[in-house]
Design a protein that fits this description.
Strand content: 15-25%
Shape: elongated
Helix content: 40-55%
Oligomer: single chain
Number of helices: 13
Distance between the termini: 27 Å
Structural class: alpha/beta
Number of strands: 15
Largest sheet: 6 strands, mixed
Length: 412
């Protein structure tokens, strides 16, 4: 039984999808005004593990992930680089997809861009205005959280501290981990000199960041999602904004389970340009690490715990993986089965739940605890007398590990 920490209920819950036919998942994708760093990929790799483990457990999965390609930051960055937003974001999207493949990540079924979902955003905005959840003010459209019962329930916001005086927040995003206690923008009305806008049914302008995800979800999913994922920073403002918007226009909950991955720090500090400590995958490759080792470092742990990068911790994780792989290789040499096949005897061993597989399941069922799962497998393998293994026994172990590695993608 898979148990996941549901942010909405603030506790571990046994996973029961909305539908057994297909598990619908939406994961917040990158804001592609800049290249994704290893901190971003920590979240995306957690989501990759989630999808792969659900499939390993027998669930068909359908996943959507968005590209935020039109927002305040992208516009500013394009101006700074003397290019267009489409050229800037197009380059970063291609880089992102390339790194996904290098990190052996599954490509989601749907990869919508915010710029391609403007009509859906406009339709949602029209509904929100008609329902009195949103209103026009000086050419922009704002959502009033006080009109939505239960606003802030995902974060657990104390609405008694909401200011009596009306405030409006007109930027797509704001720096820092904080709450903006006021009305948030969902439509940037056209201003003279604006280079990026659409001529829509509600006039010229562009949808804000917080209505973009609802617009892209609405294109592909028309029922409650089984799971909605994102980084822990999305718990401040963004995901409660999305939830309020979608549940204002839909007669069903947005998602049954909400999962949030914690941050990656570098030498104990948050990554930032000002600190000069942003790391990319190729920075680690230059230090001699393979993409499989980078993947392992970023998934090895509990996704709800903060992960810290340091050369010492990276080296320790890499040594652990290399030691594990050496042992697997030694067992594989004894195995009589070719990759993808197994003897009748080794298949019987698989059915009997080899201790390695049991250890993997125990950790992964415990809220996707990859550290517990991997360390458990390593302890079991360490107890195996390789020189005493029969070929059929070795084949059973290898066959099990190949199935497990469809989730982890680091062993072979």
């Amino acid at each position: 039984m898979i148990r996941l920490f549901n942010t909405l209920g603030k506790k571990n819950e046994t996973f029961h999808p909305v539908s057994r036919k297909v598990v619908n998942i939406f994961t917040c994708g990158p804001s592609v005004y800049q290249r994704a760093h290893i901190g971003n990929f920590r979240t995306f790799l957690f989501e990759d593990i989630l999808v792969r483990y659900l499939e390993y457990s027998g669930y068909p999965v359908r996943r959507g992930m968005n590209f935020t390609d039109i927002e305040d930051k992208a516009i500013r960055e394009a101006v700074r680089n003397r290019t267009t937003v489409s050229r800037l974001t197009g380059k970063n999207i291609q880089q992102f997809l390339h790194e996904m493949k290098l990190l052996k990540m599954k490509i989601p079924d749907y990869l919508p861009k915010a710029s391609g979902s403007v009509d859906e955003a406009v339709e949602i905005i029209e509904k929100l205005i008609g329902l009195k959840h949103a209103y026009w003010y000086k050419g922009n459209v704002y959502f009033d959280p006080l009109t939505f019962r239960g606003f802030g329930k995902l974060f657990g916001l104390d609405m008694s501290k909401w200011p009596a005086k009306k405030k409006r927040f007109h930027k797509d995003t704001y720096p820092g981990i904080q709450w903006n206690l006021g009305d948030f923008i969902i439509w940037h009305g056209y201003r003279k000199g604006d280079r990026y806008y659409w001529d829509s049914k509600i006039g010229k302008g562009r949808p804000s960041w917080n209505v973009q995800d609802p617009s892209m979800i609405s294109r592909y999913f028309h029922e409650t999602l089984s799971i909605y994922c994102g980084g822990a920073d999305n718990l401040y403002r963004h995901h409660d904004y999305i939830l309020a918007i979608l549940e204002s226009v839909n007669p069903y909950p947005t998602a049954k389970y909400w999962l949030h991955c914690n941050h990656l720090h570098v030498n104990g500090q948050k990554m930032s340009k000002s600190k000069g400590n942003i790391l990319y995958s190729d920075d680690l490759q230059k230090l001699g690490y393979t993409m499989s080792e980078i993947r392992f470092f970023l998934i090895y742990g509990q996704y709800r715990d903060r992960l810290n990068y340091s050369e010492k911790q990276m080296r320790a994780a890499t040594d652990k993986l290399r030691d594990f792989r050496r042992r697997v290789k030694a067992i594989e040499k004894i195995s009589s089965a070719k990759p993808g096949s197994a003897s009748l005897e080794s298949r019987q061993l698989l059915k009997e739940n080899h201790p390695v597989r049991t250890s993997f399941l125990r950790g992964m069922d415990n809220n996707l605890d990859v550290r517990e799962a991997f360390d458990g497998m390593q302890r079991k393998l360490s107890g195996v007398r390789i020189d005493e293994l029969k070929p059929a026994e070795a084949s059973g172990i290898i066959q099990d590990l190949r199935e497990i590695d469809k989730v982890l993608q680091v062993m072979f």
